[in-house]
Design brief:
There is one protein chain. The protein is mainly alpha-helical and 133 residues long. The chain has a single domain, classed as translation initiation factor eif-2b, domain 1 (Four Helix Bundle (Hemerythrin (Met), subunit A)). The protein is 63% helix and 0% strand. The chain contains five helices and no strands. Helix 2 runs parallel beside helix 4, helix 2 packs antiparallel against helix 5 and helix 4 runs antiparallel to helix 5.
Length: 133
């Protein structure tokens, strides 16, 4: 796990240190923008929680962690918008990035590359969905 650069972009959720804290925090917030920021940060924390490394299995561990976080966050919010939209967008983007940057048996993204994709996707989603371009 590495330090997350730009934590403050996610507002109050950035004070959380793991998915469990995000899930607890999520039950206490109101408002669509705050929910989106919290959910996006939960996905980022989960992606960043893996050990990291340069092997394909390391990148897959990030994707597996994201899939687990998506299920937990969606369930905590009763599978409603905007949560499912944010979690779906982030997971899809990370999976697509990993797939498009993989040449079987030769080349694949590092776990850090996938986490960077998650960070950028989360920031872009929050900018677009809040109308801030």
């Amino acid at each position: 796990m590495s330090e997350i650069v730009g934590r403050s972009f996610f507002g109050y959720a950035s004070k959380c240190n793991d998915l469990k804290e995000v899930l607890a925090f999520l039950s206490d917030i109101t408002g669509e923008d705050a929910t989106k920021a919290t959910v996006a940060f939960g996905m980022l924390l989960s992606a960043n929680s893996t050990e990291g490394g340069e092997y394909r299995d390391d990148a897959l561990a990030v994707l597996n962690s994201l899939a687990y976080a998506k299920a937990e966050l969606d369930s905590a919010q009763c599978h409603t918008f905007p949560t499912i939209e944010v979690t779906s967008d982030i997971l899809f983007s990370a999976q697509r990035y990993a797939d498009e940057n993989t040449i079987p048996c030769n080349e694949w993204p590092t776990s850090e590359d996938v986490v960077k994709n998650v960070l950028e996707t989360a920031k872009n989603i929050l900018k677009l969905k809040s109308g801030k371009n």
